[in-house]
Structure formats: structure tokens, C-alpha cells
Write a structure and sequence with these properties.
mainly alpha; 0% strand
Length: 86
């Protein structure tokens, strides 16, 4: 379901390896910070894509086919996830 995100995650993995090398080699702080920012943005995009997919598939299916307990469970999951990002 989320296979399309693998390429982005591979990019992040490579970026982190490069960041570690920069730190080890005493690279310029601003360059390190720029790379960290880039990796963070990409990871945030992966998170958004997976969350969007979850809403469009799992939650939508639960609301169209599930019983009231399943609907409540899905809503609780989404609310807990959103609360973590505050």
C-alpha cells in the first residue's frame, strides 16, 4: 500500500548517511543544517502521504462498512495521532 514511499525513504536514508559524514568531517554548520532541513521536509512529506492514504482507504472503508465500534476505533486512532503532533 505504501510502496510508493520507499524511494523517498531511500533518499532520506542516503541524506542521513551524508549528514553523518559531514559531521564526522567537521563540515560547515550551515551546510549540515540545510541537509537536515531537507531530510526533515522529505520525511514530513512521507508522513503526510501515508496519513492521507490511511484516511482515504482504512478510515473511509471503516465508515462505509464498519460497525459503530470500528468507526469509533478509527476516530480514536486519528485523534491520538493528531494529538501527538501538537
Amino acid at each position: 500500500m505504501h510502496e510508493s514511499q520507499i524511494a523517498q525513504l531511500d533518499m532520506i536514508e542516503n541524506e542521513v548517511i551524508y549528514i553523518k559524514r559531514m559531521i564526522h568531517d567537521a563540515g560547515r554548520c550551515i551546510n549540515i543544517l540545510t541537509r537536515i532541513r531537507s531530510a526533515s521536509r522529505t520525511l514530513s512529506q512521507v508522513e503526510y502521504n501515508i496519513f492521507k492514504s490511511h484516511l482515504e482507504s482504512c478510515v473511509k472503508k471503516s465508515f462505509s462498512e464498519g460497525n459503530i465500534l470500528d468507526k469509533r476505533k478509527r476516530m480514536d486512532e486519528v485523534q491520538a495521532l493528531l494529538a501527538q503532533s501538537r
